[in-house]
Amino acid sequence: MALRFNNIKLSAPLEKQEGGYTESSVLAKLEAYDMLISLAKAPNAAAERISFEAERLRRLPLKRVKGGLFSKNGYSVEQVDKLIEELDSQIIAALKNK
C-alpha cells in the first residue's frame, strides 16, 4: 500500500513485520502529522498553538498488531518510529522560523 501525504515524503515504502504497528493507528498519526506540518508552514500560524498540537500528537498512541497463533503483520516499528522522529524535527524547524 502506497501512503500519500502532502507534506510527508517517504524515501521507501514502510515495511511490514510480525507484530508491528497497526495500519489504522499509523495512518491516523501520519495524517495528523501531515496536517500539523501544513499548519506549521503557514506564515500566520501561532507557534504556541503548533507547540500544543505537536505535544498532543506525540501522545497519540500507536497500537501494535495482536499476536497469537495466527499473528498478523503491521508496519515496521523501527521505520515508523524513525519517520516520526524526522517529522518532529520538521515541526521544530518550522517553529524556529516563527
Number of structurally distinct domains: 1
Structural class: mainly alpha
Number of strands: 2
| Order of strands across the main sheet | 1-2
Work out the helicity level: 40-55%
Categorize the overall geometry: elongated
Low-confidence stretches: none
The portion of residues forming beta strands comes to 5-15%
Report mean pLDDT, rounded to a whole number: 86
Gap between N and C termini: 36 Å
Number of helices: 3
Features:
single chain, 98 residues, mainly alpha, two-stranded antiparallel ribbon, 3 helices, 2 strands, 6% strand, elongated
What does this structure look like?
The chain has 3 helices and 2 strands; from the N terminus they run βααβα. It has helices spanning 23-41, 47-58, 77-96, and strands at residues 16-18, 73-75. The chain starts with 15 loop residues before the first strand and ends with a helix. Helix 1 (23-41) runs antiparallel to helix 2 and helix 1 runs parallel beside helix 3 (77-96). It is mostly helical. It has a two-stranded antiparallel sheet with strand order 1-2. It has one domain.
